[in-house]
Amino acid sequence: MGILQGRVAIITGGAASIGAAITKKIHHEGARVVVAARSEDKGHAIVKELGGNSLFVQTDITDDNALKLLISETLEAFGSVDLVVNNACSYGDDGPATARETWLSTLNTNIVSAAILGELARPHLKKKNGSIVNVGSVSGNFPHIGRWAYPVSKAALKHLTKSQAVNYASDRIRVNMVTLGHIWSDPFEGLTGNNRAHADKVSVPYNLMGRVADPEEVANVVAFLASEAASYMNGGETLVDGGYSALGPEQHFPLMPLLAGGEQN
Hints:
Elements: E1 8-12, H1 17-28, E2 32-37, H2 40-50, E3 54-58, H3 64-78, E4 83-86, H4 100-127, E5 131-137, H5 149-168, E6 174-180, H6 186-192, H7 196-203, H8 215-226, E7 237-240, H9 255-259
Parallel strand pairs: 1-2, 1-4, 2-3, 4-5, 5-6, 6-7
């Protein structure tokens, strides 16, 4: 029996990349899953792959009516909502030159939609002592040169997680966040031309594992946070970053030997 047996989970952006891995893991752990995504092709494909106890609802998470429909279709199909995973996000970002329209679109997708969906799901989560898992990023903890809108949105998501946890505690709803480092996902595939070896090589200075993570490594932590095994975890941030956050400014290269005339290796 899986650790999420009998639960009903909504996963936004759950049809592709990291979201697909989360959907599959949660389904594998016994939950009935509702995939909320924009792509019909990918949404229908993952539901076909999973077979029973899965549903695709085409959803634009920036549309409140679409979110209300998502909740109602979930209830109609499965009768409850036990878990919401706010995974869908926008990477719209041109650094200091980011236009207002892009700022608003990125913030609307990455932070406002998570807040609205959580509130719509709240009365149903309350009935089941449910939980919310928000998918954050190390970009929300550290400034990244040339990127503004995406990191700011993820920083806001960290604060939203704590705000939701504080406000929803009286309803016995837990809210936690996974903070991701470099994950093999659609953006990495696109930037590298689907070259995983290159992505691993480039990541070496940035984390302690010397590689990017598999999306399944994220999914395992999301499933744990949603389960009773994490029953005393609330308002927290769980790092899935391969040690990215543990590295200081010197990263893997100590300053003193370099000052003494050594070489970086």
